[in-house]
Amino acid sequence: MPEEQPDHDAAGKNRLISLSLPILARADFGQRHPGGLLPVLNSMENQPFFGKVALVTGSSRGIGLAIATAMAREGADLVVNYRRSGKSVEKAEALCQQIRDMGRRAIAVQGDISVKADVQRMVKEGTEAMGRLDFLILNAAIAPFKPIEKLFEKELKQLVGVNYTGNILCLQAALPHLEKTDGNIVFVSSLGSRFYNTSYPLGSMKAAMEAVVRDCGESLRDRGVNMNGVCAGLVKTDSFKVLRQLWEGIEQIPEELFLQPEEVADVVTFLCSPSARAIRGQTLVVDHGMSNRLYHGG
Ligand SMILES: NC(=O)c1ccc[n+]([C@@H]2O[C@H](COP(=O)([O-])OP(=O)(O)OC[C@H]3O[C@@H](n4cnc5c(N)ncnc54)[C@H](OP(=O)(O)O)[C@@H]3O)[C@@H](O)[C@H]2O)c1
What we know:
Order of helices and strands: HHHEHEHEHEHEHEHHE
Bound molecules: NADP nicotinamide-adenine-dinucleotide phosphate
Helix content: 40-55%
Number of strands: 7
């Protein structure tokens, strides 16, 4: 049985009213919402993730940013995570402001997922600020683009430390909170988990994590937590700019086979929704069918 919990719906409503005040202050509010505040509140309450909280690792840019935005659009409050100081802080704060403008709560928490103390602080700060955790989206990743046999020890440690150990550390830290909310975990994988590319050692970590998705889909069942994954095709983000330089023949891939970050985000939100309740321990391929045509890369 879950521990005694605060009345989240009531807390959500109170929060919503205070958050709505800046919106009400806008001069054009009356024109856009002639029915006044109540219809707006009601429409927010009808959002599937209203009153729920999502933590998205690596959401200062790229696919993570699209996922955080999509989760907020569905009504969730957000814990936005990023790793680096400087530009990433500005990007994470800008995203939080954008989410607040949508009437949701958001905080940005810096932290390297490969560092246990960072992960524990991130989850602590996130849950203390938001009061609960319903969704953990394991999106952050970083890896050198070079053949696996050429990795320096430091690069190898980063490869495993961020992309395997880091994800498990996040899962372990978030689990006590997810248990209380019958929460969901979604891992963002890539086609490198199943297809060879000489410059993509990250693929082996994605494959390992897809096995974790299957295992945790089962092992967390009795604790009320579900885990699934999204295996995404190619998305033109910052990391893709580097891959493009190393992948011979990438220019031949038809434009229609590339994904928009929002298309990955839509499937992540679906997996968090009640509509996906029958999907457990699975990683769904989302690639516009690119893998059907065997564009492995060189
Ligand atoms: N792009 C693609 O074609 C593609 C395809 C399939 C799957 N994916 C997967 O989708 C996910 C996002 O990819 P992306 O292309 O959007 O990546 P990206 O543009 O390179 O962004 C990476 C994000 O992860 C954060 N990050 C990196 N290392 C971190 C760490 N140790 N701790 C915490 N945060 C960290 C970065 O924070 P900073 O801003 O602070 O650096 C940034 O927010 C990854 O798991 C990737 O493997 C990507």
